[in-house]
Structure formats: structure tokens, C-alpha cells
Amino acid sequence: MQPRILLIDDNAVQAATRQAILRRAGYFVVCALHPQLALEQLRDAQSAGPIGLVVTDHVMPGMNGAAFVRALRTFLPEMPVLVISGLDEAEPLYAGLKVTFRLKPLLPEELLAVVAGLIGH
């Protein structure tokens, strides 16, 4: 069974596109449009099945990706995280947070290759 992926992006179109790409590759993907909701889902994830990877955008309302990852690391310090951003200057904000950072646009084959590397499949 493939690990579940939590996809966080406040842009519903981008979230749906990435979700479709990952689902076509056989992954089970749960989407959240807000990082605070995603944190709640991750805290409660054990009841619905464990999440094996988080894929998040950087620029989101209320909490950017770096703040989200810092909050995530307080209770899931080893969770694999892929950050996708259109801002090259955002990468230093993730120093020491154990994430994989990729710039947009991220082609479908590159997304799938990075995800496969992060979850070991």
C-alpha cells in the first residue's frame, strides 16, 4: 500500500492539479487548502491512516510554509516534507527544517520523481 500524502496549497487549481498527478501515479492524496487545517489533520491522522509525506506551498494565508513546517516539527520531527515555491529567495527560510525544496513550475515527472524519492518507492 502506498503511503498517504497530505497536499497543502491555498490555490485550489494547483492543489487539484498536483492531486490528480499523484493519484494517477497510484498515491492516496488528502488535500488541505489552509496550513492550520493541515496541522489539525496531521495531529488526527492516525485514526484515518498515517500520512507518509507532506507536500506544501510556501506562500499561504495566515501561515507561510516555513512557519507550517516549524509547527509540524514540534510533533512530527521526521515527517518527509516537500516544499514547492515560486520564490527562490524562500529556500533559506527552511534551513535546518529537514525539507526538500523545489521551485515552481514543477513538471509532473519531476514531482513524481521527488515524491518517490522521499517516500522510498
Structural features, described:
This protein has helices at 12-24, 35-48, 65-73, 108-119, and strands spanning 4-8, 28-32, 51-57, 81-85, 100-103. With 121 residues, it is α/β, with parallel strands linked by helices. The protein has a single domain (34-119), classed as Rossmann fold. A five-stranded parallel β-sheet has the order 2-1-3-4-5, with helices on both faces. Helix 2 runs parallel beside helix 3 (65-73). It starts with a strand and ends with a helix. The mean pLDDT is 92.
The largest sheet has its strands arranged as: 2-1-3-4-5
- Under CATH, the topology is which? Rossmann fold
CATH C-level label? Alpha Beta
Number of domains: 1
What is the H level of CATH, i.e. the homologous superfamily?
Response regulator
**Helix segment tally:** 4
Helix content: 25-40%
